[in-house]
Hints:
Blueprint: H1 8-49, H2 60-69, H3 79-85, E1 87-90, E2 97-100, H4 114-123, H5 135-163
Antiparallel strand pairs: 1-2
Helix pairs in contact: 1-5
Amino acid sequence: MGIEIIQEGNLNLLEHVAKKMPAFLKSRGKKIQEKVAKRFLKELKRNWRNKKLGLAPLSAAYLAHKKREGLDRRILLATRELIGSLQVQRLEESGAHVVAPPKGQRHTSTGILLEDLLKVIEFGSPSRNIPPRPILRKTAEAVKEELIKLIKEEFEKEAREYFEGK
């Protein structure tokens, strides 16, 4: 009559899955998250090498400042070292995987902490007339669909392995 009756066997399976779900999400979810972070980092570095981040050029005022100070006038010169330092790290507090420079590592020529340099590049510094150049956000937007697909594929694979006892 259009209403499916859940049989005893199916109910047991649903109970089994419901009981195992928290452990699955805790163990396999972190594994999936790490894979996604690694893929993101790979795409960020590839986009950087291929100059596909679509970043705004330096302002005329900042170019003039660099010329007066005898500084290199290329865009994001300090970023090369920063990009090279990025790695997937697991946060102790939450266990989440993130892409970040090593804690405490400094840029060789300026002495600025790389994590601070990343914040300035990503969000800008109005007080120093530095516009945002969102390398992380632009990469995330560019690879969003690919990462969603990866999450779906990995979640399905991990779920099959976990619930089928592999």
